[in-house]
Amino acid sequence: MSQRDFYVIYDGQCPVCSAGAARMSVDPEHGQLHCIDARSDGKIVRHLQTEGLNIDEGLVVMRDSEYLHGAEAMYSLARVTPKHGIFNRTYRVFFGSRQRARRWYPIFTSARQGLLLLLRRQNIAAGDVAE
């Protein structure tokens, strides 16, 4: 793992999370982005749990041995997202300030939970993770 890179841990069985991870990018001057599906790596999920982070409550960004979770993680990514492209601009509208990230992130998390329920998919903490 490069200290300069961003590692985003997300729920790969959530269609919205997967689509966001596929479209997310970081301006090259800030490092590279690596997206990790939490459901494909039980070891990382257990590690996050030892750090007190619940991946079902929000995505995690790791950088420079620091862990950011939920709204703070989304805000940190918005700060380094390129300014061009409709996805990036929209992302910055919702998460480009701490205040907006704190306002909008719970809404997105609730929508994710509802979507997983409709799709009959378990939460990650329920054990639906590859070893």
Characterize the structure shown.
It is globular, with a radius of gyration of 14 Å. The model has no long low-confidence stretch (mean pLDDT 90). It is built from five helices and four strands, in the order βαβαββααα. β3 (60-63) and β4 form a beta hairpin. It has one domain (6-126). A four-stranded mixed beta sheet has the order 2-1-3-4, with helices on one face. It has helices at residues 15-23, 42-50, 71-80, 86-95, 98-118; strands spanning 6-10, 33-37, 60-63, 66-69. By secondary structure, it is of the alpha+beta class.
SSE map:
Elements: E1 6-10, H1 15-23, E2 33-37, H2 42-50, E3 60-63, E4 66-69, H3 71-80, H4 86-95, H5 98-118
Parallel strand pairs: 1-2
Antiparallel strand pairs: 1-3, 3-4
Helix pairs in contact: 3-4, 3-5
The average pLDDT value, as a whole number, equals 90
Q: For the largest sheet, list the strands in their spatial order.
A: 2-1-3-4
Query: What percentage of the residues does DSSP assign to strands (E)?
Result: 5-15%
- Please report the total strand number as a whole number: 4
Note poorly predicted spans: none
Total domains: 1
CA radius of gyration is 14 Å
Query: Main sheet?
Result: 4 strands, mixed
Oligomer: single chain
- Give the CA-based shape: globular
Query: What is the number of helical segments per DSSP (H or I, 4+ residues)?
Result: 5
Q: What is the N-to-C succession of helices and strands?
A: EHEHEEHHH
Distance between the termini: 20 Å
Helix coverage percent:
40-55%
- Label the structural class: alpha+beta
